[in-house]
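S.,

Sequence below, as promised.
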Amino acid sequence: MRKLQVQGVHHITLTGADRQTSIDFWEGVLGMPFVFDQPNLDNPDEGHLYFDPGDGRLITIFTNETRKADRRRTPTDPGCVHHLAFNVSRATFLQVEARLEARGIGHSGPKDRGFMDSIYFKDPLGLLIELACYKFEPPMGCTHADVMIEAHRRRVAAGDHHIQEVHLADAIEHLVEMRQQSLSSDRLPKNPYV
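The prediction came back faster than expected:
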């Protein structure tokens, strides 16, 4: 038996309401460029809109002019999507509350998740959206996942409840030490001020 190794998210497709609601939210609120438009090839009564969330991957929406937006929370039963999270810069994150409030969009307020900050709100169809901002930048040549797994190991070893900034900082230091060579034979911390 062999795995079917994936290499990232190709796209996520959501069932939307009418075309304009989708464009107004995904591009008009979240700033995702509307990059492709064609019929749903499996259902001629639907459109298929494509948006770039900022990393070249795609969020696609099936639209139908007979469907209307329903703002009630989407189901959270087993097998349902709980929420979608999108990365934003620190500069943008610091503006999210005010910008949502300027549009009259309710939100959770900022949430400290230890390794990131988040804010939640619903799209016009009741899907929970999270805007997240990492508290760290991974070292050159590493990914956020590399830092997360090392920070997790350090959190577990310390017996801490959840990842905190100290775990992230120590994980980054460890990854730099492992990935970047040095001419020094002793890379332990030093105090040059004594």
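Helices lie at 19-26, 90-102, 144-158, 165-179.

Coffee later?
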